[in-house]
Specification:
This protein is α/β, with parallel strands linked by helices and 287 residues long. The chain has one domain: Rossmann fold (3-Layer(aba) Sandwich). The strands form two sheets. A seven-stranded parallel β-sheet has the order 3-2-1-4-6-7-8, sandwiched between helices. A three-stranded antiparallel β-sheet has the order 5-9-10. The longest helix has 29 residues. It starts with 6 loop residues before the first strand and ends with a strand.
Length: 287
């Protein structure tokens, strides 16, 4: 088992890519703290872990990653429960602000950056303190996106926040390398998860598959596999990387506005904010 006796914290671990990674890490021998805003999906994930025989190595803590006190409590919970921290996967996310730039409110901008960028910063800040004190290094993994790599690959504010995550990951990797703490980002493409949409799952997967060179839609398991590599000793010489996991989408050119115009700034009919799998409803305004 590649993560035997390791302790991991996964934010946004109650659904989608986070849940898939929780279950994969548990199967590989880790103890895992599920940190998520949504209590009901958190309980579901705990149940899945228990059914798989991993209940003694799994726990849940409700976490708003935009609040520093919650991040501190999350890290403290891991240390109190399992005695250490080896892996931190800053994965929590929301769709955030959508609509034209000229119609985006400061409040929607702040909410999006608070969750997607500040949440990663806070995770690195407090996770690093524990890893430094332990003196054995560690692995920090941040969920970015192909939306942070170019224009027209995601909603404008979301894209800007994910670009910030990529840059932060690289800078933190340089700063923390002497401590043997590795920092890397994963840049997913179209991954069929609850965050991506709440419609017919099969229809969503089919639409995503048609929008990229690879003939199958991305899944949470695809991200979990890359996260496992980055968390394990197999990646001991890998730091400061932004690894693209997108079925060739970036190679082909995303052109998101042509494929999913409803989340592009070119759709001038709606503005507002989406809150992903938090359990809170979107706040949309017709223009």
């Amino acid at each position: 088992m590649r993560l035997k006796d390791k302790v991991a914290v996964i934010t946004g671990g109650a659904s989608g890519m986070g849940r898939a990674t929780v279950l994969r890490f548990l199967a590989e021998g880790a103890s895992v703290v599920i940190a998520d805003y949504n209590i009901s999906t958190g309980e579901e994930t705990i149940s899945l872990a228990e059914e798989a025989g991993f209940g003694d190595r799994t726990s849940f803590i409700r976490t708003d990653v935009a609040r520093e006190a919650d991040i501190e409590a999350m890290i403290a919970h891991a240390v109190a429960r399992y005695g250490r921290l080896d892996i931190l996967f800053n994965n929590a996310g929301v769709g955030g602000a959508i609509g034209p730039l000229t119609e985006t409110t400061v409040e929607d901008w702040d909410y999006t950056f608070d969750v997607l960028a500040k949440g990663v910063f806070l995770g690195i800040k407090h996770g690093t303190r524990v890893m430094k004190a332990q003196g054995n290094g560690g692995s920090i993994i941040n969920t970015a996106s192909i939306a942070g790599l170019s224009g027209d690959a995601g909603p404008l504010v979301y894209s800007a926040a994910k670009a910030a995550v990529i840059s932060l990951s690289k800078s933190a990797a340089v700063e923390l390398a002497p401590e043997r703490i590795r920092v890397n980002a994963i840049c997913p493409g179209f991954i069929a998860t609850p965050l991506a949409g709440r419609g017919d799952p099969e229809r969503l997967r089919a639409a995503f598959a048609r929008s990229q060179p690879w003939p199958e839609a991305g899944s949470g398991d695809h991200i979990a596999g890359v996260a496992l590599f980055l968390a394990s000793d197999d990646a001991v010489f890998v730091t400061g990387e932004a690894i693209v996991v997108d079925g060739g989408l970036t190679a082909a050119g995303p052109e998101l506005s042509k494929k999913f115009s409803q989340v592009s700034a070119r759709d001038a009919s709606v503005s507002g904010i989406t809150k992903g799998s938090t359990g809170e409803p979107p706040e949309l305004r017709r223009l």
